[in-house]
Write a structure and sequence with these properties.
Elements lengths: L1 E8 L3 H12 L4 E4 L17 E2 L7 H11 L6 H22 L6 E2 L2 E2 L12 E2 L5 H13 L5 E4 L2 E8 H4 L12 E8 L4 E12 L20 H9 L3 E2 L4 E8 L11 H5 L3 E3 L19 H15 L4 E4 L5 H7 L1 H9 L9 E10 L2 E3 L11 E3 L4 E2 L12 H18 L1 H5 L20 H18 L6 H24 L4 H22 L13
Helix pairs in contact: 1-4, 1-11, 2-3, 3-11, 6-15, 13-14, 13-15, 14-15
Bound molecules: flavin-adenine dinucleotide and succinic acid.
């Protein structure tokens, strides 16, 4: 059994920001990461950038763009917090403290636009913003002696007094969270981590879809754990699909940043015809949900598999200095972006919904916070505006740290309750990898085909039936097999898939990235 002041589950932008501000306030923090590599997370792959401030920009203009992209479902109070505090925090944390090397010259940072932004206000590190943000934050966080990092540690379940306390009377109280059961991937055993407060910063869920921009860690662990512990999840039907990922069998849906369109790239059909103006007055730079559907409409109509991103209006110097990583990746597939258009298709990108939190990152379960992509602050509404996610991680990370600290004495008044250790229910050691692979294939195909960018009532109904059957098999397997990373992930993956589909079925009308063709 281990004890820490605050357990932060996740080492992306959200987890690191929370840990840094907690450490500054004197708290002892343990940060867990699923992989051996602490930096393996969605944050690391962010390309386009992070919102700062444009020329003649102000918080009201940013609020207007976020809310327009969010299709009328953004929570105005949260959007205002982001718009007012975000740019100041970029300066305080990312520029001054962590020293993120944003692109610019003569002390002026280069500003770009992306879909849905009516002016240039995004700063970036060429096209590898996430890599620089992640490594700068990690480096800075490692300067604090009161932050302890533990890699290769997978949180399996949150500990609540309702579910796990030795005290039978705990059920009569309001439930509280006191840490997590954590699977040590090296020792292959589960350790109890007790904490006064727990922060879920586990990122997104893209890997439950067949096609996604997300790395392998993103299977929705945090959403599933929170749900099992009894925290509220909201807006799960609003799953965002990015319009432009590289179309190639082996490219694993590599993202082609929206910033390429921000610099002048235009979407065209395979015979070179511009089409986005047909769907929105902002053309190729319309909000993501609109561009994704525009592309899919063209593909269905023309029976084709991809559209092109035409870069001919961007000068070659800009293309090569501004997008070096995209250029390199395309070259691996014999596409020379200085001369060729890029074949692109949409893929799952971001979960707008998640664990419902307040303006301080606190969930509906006492002592449990959720920050970053796993949370739902209401900022993104039904569709996220580009480059708001990293900003949200920072703003809510700092706010949560302050809130945890302000409640410190009250929360610490009584010593932590006693909990039972994890009971290893697994009977069988052996696992057949073919079973797990097939279950993942089934799950990902169901989600892509029935709960993808274009949904119908029939598809969603079918999804729920198929997912329920799959969940029964997986649950049985999970209960009778020793834990491994793959069993934990599969178990969570099917849980979160069902949350999405249930939410999608109950929201009968289209809005933002939840689009029902036969509503
Ligand atoms: P992550 O960065 O994904 O971190 C999650 C952490 O949780 C990881 O450390 C992981 O190991 C850990 N974890 C997960 N499950 C467990 C578990 N069970 N136990 C222990 N640890 C666990 N947003 C922008 O604002 N601007 C952009 O330009 C941008 N570009 C993007 C490009 C790509 C390709 C992608 C995929 C996303 C992009 N986004 C962008 C979105 C943004 O990157 C993410 O939403 C954001 O980084 C999420 O940060 P996070 O800290 O919440 O999660
Ligand atoms: C991109 O670079 O297109 C992704 C930006 C984002 O997801 O905010």
């Amino acid at each position: 059994m281990k004890r820490t002041d605050v357990l932060v589950i996740g080492s992306g932008a959200a987890g690191l920001t929370t840990a840094i501000y907690l450490a500054k306030l004197g708290r002892n923090v343990t940060v867990l990461a699923k992989s051996e590599d602490l930096s393996e997370c969605n944050t690391r792959y962010a390309q386009g950038g992070i919102i700062y401030k444009g020329i003649n920009d102000n918080p009201e203009k940013l609020v207007r763009d976020i809310e327009y992209a969010g299709a009328g479902l953004c929570y105005n109070a949260s959007v205002k917090v982001l718009a007012e505090e975000g740019p100041k925090l970029v300066e305080e944390l990312l520029i001054k403290s962590a020293g993120v090397p944003f692109t610019g010259q003569n002390g002026k940072m280069h500003l770009t636009a992306e879909g849905g932004h009516r002016l240039k206000r995004i700063i970036h590190c060429d096209d590898t913003t996430g890599y620089e943000v992640e490594f700068s934050l990690l480096k800075y966080a490692k300067t604090f002696k009161n932050i302890k990092f533990e890699a290769g540690k997978i949180a399996v379940d949150l500990i609540t007094d309702q579910h796990h306390s030795n005290n039978m009377m705990a059920r009569y109280k309001n439930p509280e969270c006191f840490g997590a059961y954590v699977f040590d991937t090296k020792k292959k055993s589960v350790v109890t981590y007790l904490a006064v407060s727990t922060v879920l910063a586990t990122g997104g869920l893209g890997r439950i879809y067949l096609h996604t921009t997300n790395p392998e860690v993103a299977v929705g662990d945090g959403y599933a754990m929170a749900q099992r512990a009894g925290a509220d999840l909201i807006n799960m039907e609003y799953t965002q699909f990015h319009p432009t990922t590289l179309f190639h069998r082996d490219a694993n849906r590599f993202l082609i940043s929206e910033a390429v369109r921000g610099e002048g790239g235009i979407l065209v059909t395979q015979d070179g015809r511009k089409f986005m103006n047909k769907y929105h007055k902002m053309g190729s730079l319309a909000p993501r949900d609109v561009v994704t559907r525009g592309i899919l409409e063209e593909l269905y109509e023309r029976n084709e598999q991809f559209v092109y991103l035409d870069l001919s209006s961007i000068d070659k110097q800009t293309l090569s200095t501004r997008f070096p990583a995209i250029r390199k990746k395309c070259e691996e597939y014999n596409i020379d972006i200085l001369h060729d258009p890029i074949p692109v298709v949409p893929a799952f990108h971001f979960s707008c919904g998640g664990v419902r939190v307040n303006s301080r990152g606190a969930s509906s379960l006492s002592r449990l916070y959720a920050i970053g992509e796993v949370s739902c602050t209401g900022v993104h509404g039904a569709n996220r505006l580009a480059s708001t996610s990293l900003l949200e991680c920072c703003v809510w990370g700092k706010r949560a740290a302050n809130d945890i600290n302000s409640r410190w004495d009250d929360n610490n008044k009584n010593s932590l309750p006693k909990f039972s250790e994890w009971i290893d229910h697994g009977l069988e050691e052996f696992q057949d990898p073919a079973l797990i692979a097939q279950d993942w294939n089934t799950l990902r195909n169901i989600m892509w085909n029935y709960a993808g960018p274009i949904r119908t009532h029939k598809r969603l109904k079918r999804a729920i039936i198929d997912l329920r059957n799959l969940q029964e098999d997986i649950e049985d397997f999970y209960r009778n097999t020793k834990l491994t990373r793959s069993t934990v992930e599969l178990h969570n993956g099917v849980t979160v898939a069902l949350s999405i589909v249930r939410a999608a079925i109950s929201t009968r009308s289209s809005r933002g990235c939840h689009y029902i063709k036969d509503e």
